């Protein structure tokens, strides 16, 4: 029998400060996410001097730990009382998270045996992944808990995506210059000092949503078992489709950004510094797309914008693959791709929040924490799987490390991994997985032009 709905928390007006504070949180998370994606492996191999095989095992082992801890945190949030589900968890996890951010990038003495250094690094990174999962799951659930209103959720998601893009842009611009400046050429000392600064900045950014945001959505917690919550979530067709589409697009983005520097160097025969400028261009266009997301969703509905933007992103990459490999073609294509992604991101998180508001089976707000936890875990795994698959594609195409000129076959493999594979994944997400996606929220059903699912 369904548990009775909890009493709704007292409602207060959502002002601009709360919306901006919420966006600041994802800026903090993407600073750390960008550092882990772009510089963690480099730090372990080039600064801590750990073997590449050991580093690969460490990263996968730490991600495996997230497969267990993230759902546990989600279930814990779902069991907490209405009005105090996510924000207290976020607030309590900030200080440990800050400490682990600084410790993870703390260089270990080279005099220590490599096994001891590897064990310490693995334990530190695993602890960071667990702490990240706790605070990030709580933050993600707040999208559903701050407000039940469709338009307000879209504004919150837009603020979140703007903050996330700014965080990624900040990491790409400042990391290595700041490391060299703080360390005066000593990158061991530079990384240690830089990460202390980063930990303080990120802690301040995460404190803002924990202080200024409020939970207003009543939940169906009750005494439901974990098995019933999992069954209810898996019965939610909208959540399944949306999470599947997000997994495919994350996988495609991993291919795109992972192969970008190879394509610039070996296919376009340009400097690898150009790849950094192209990444900055994509980030700027994502910001522009976030600004367009709200009016487009108001005109055509969030589900239609999500499908159309995903298909457009895949189409842009496919056209770029077919056209001759030239820098101007690549620049225009990546700019348009970033614009499409920026349009999709806010509506994606808005739809994900609405999938938790009710529907068929057991679906409803009692699975908010678990839903966001598993969605986050799927995204993390997409990055890891995508990186491994990209490495396999490059190896199969005959890429030779350290060689300035690659074979024609290797260049073809690089270009396909860079543009063709992500294009197909985006088209699959938009044209197949989201083909019959229809939101279950009544407001969204009115606003959306989505076709109804087949009966």
Automatic annotation (TrEMBL):
InterPro entries (alphabetical): MFS_2 (IPR039672), MFS_trans_sf (IPR036259)
Key words of the record: Membrane, Sugar transport, Transmembrane, Transmembrane helix, Transport
GO biological process entries: carbohydrate transport
Molecular function, one GO term: symporter activity
Gene3D superfamilies tied to this protein: MFS general substrate transporter like domains
Cellular component terms (Gene Ontology): plasma membrane
SUPFAM superfamilies named in the record: MFS general substrate transporter
Membrane spanning residue stretches: 21-42, 54-77, 89-108, 114-135, 156-179, 191-208, 242-262, 274-297, 304-323, 329-353, 389-408, 414-438
Family: Belongs to the sodium:galactoside symporter (TC 2.A.2) family.
PANTHER family recorded: MAJOR FACILITATOR SUPERFAMILY (MFS) PROFILE DOMAIN-CONTAINING PROTEIN, MAJOR FACILITATOR SUPERFAMILY DOMAIN-CONTAINING PROTEIN
Protein name: Sugar transporter
Species of provenance: Komagataeibacter intermedius AF2
């Amino acid at each position: 029998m369904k548990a009775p709905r909890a009493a709704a928390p007292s409602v207060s007006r959502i002002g601009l400060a709360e919306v901006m504070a919420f966006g600041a949180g994802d800026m903090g998370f993407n600073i750390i996410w960008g550092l882990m994606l772009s510089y963690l492996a480099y730090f372990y191999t080039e600064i801590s001097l750990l073997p590449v095989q050991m580093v690969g095992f460490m990263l996968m082992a730490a991600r495996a730990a997230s497969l267990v801890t993230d759902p546990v945190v989600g279930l814990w949030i779902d069991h907490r009382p209405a009005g105090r589900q996510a924000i207290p968890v976020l607030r309590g996890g900030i200080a440990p998270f800050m400490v682990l951010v600084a410790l993870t990038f703390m260089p270990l003495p080279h005099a220590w045996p490599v096994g001891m250094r590897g064990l310490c690094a693995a334990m530190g990174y695993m602890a960071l992944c667990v702490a990240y999962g706790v605070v990030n799951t709580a933050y993600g659930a707040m999208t559903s808990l701050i407000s039940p209103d469709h338009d307000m959720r879209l504004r919150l998601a837009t603020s979140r995506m703007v903050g996330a893009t700014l965080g990624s842009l900040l990491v790409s611009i400042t990391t290595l210059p700041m490391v060299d400046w703080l360390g005066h050429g000593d990158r061991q000392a530079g990384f240690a000092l830089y990460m202390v600064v980063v930990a303080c900045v990120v802690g301040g950014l995460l404190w803002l949503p924990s202080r200024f945001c409020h939970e207003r959505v009543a939940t169906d917690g009750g005494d439901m078992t974990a098995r019933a919550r999992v069954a209810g979530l898996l019965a939610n067709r909208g959540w399944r489709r949306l999470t599947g589409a997000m997994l495919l697009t994350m996988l495609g983005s991993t291919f795109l950004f992972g192969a970008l520097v190879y394509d610039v160097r070996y296919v376009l025969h340009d400097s690898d510094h150009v790849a950094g400028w192209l990444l900055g261009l994509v980030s700027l266009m994502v910001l522009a797309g976030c600004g367009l997301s709200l009016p487009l969703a108001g005109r055509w509905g969030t589900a239609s914008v999500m499908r159309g933007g995903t298909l457009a992103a895949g189409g842009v990459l496919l056209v770029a693959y077919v056209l001759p490999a030239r820098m101007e073609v690549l620049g225009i294509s990546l700019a348009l791709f970033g614009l499409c992604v920026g349009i999709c991101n806010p509506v994606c998180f808005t739809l994900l929040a609405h999938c938790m508001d009710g529907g068929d089976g057991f679906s409803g707000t009692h699975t908010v924490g678990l839903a966001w936890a598993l969605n986050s875990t799927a995204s993390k795994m997409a990055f890891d799987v995508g990186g491994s698959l990209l490495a396999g594609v490059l190896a199969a195409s005959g890429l030779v490390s350290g060689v300035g000129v690659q074979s024609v076959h290797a260049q073809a493999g690089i270009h396909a991994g860079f543009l063709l594979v992500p294009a197909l994944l985006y088209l699959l997400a938009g044209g197949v997985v989201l083909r019959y996606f229809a939101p279950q929220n009544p407001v969204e059903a009115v606003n959306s032009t989505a076709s109804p699912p087949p009966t």
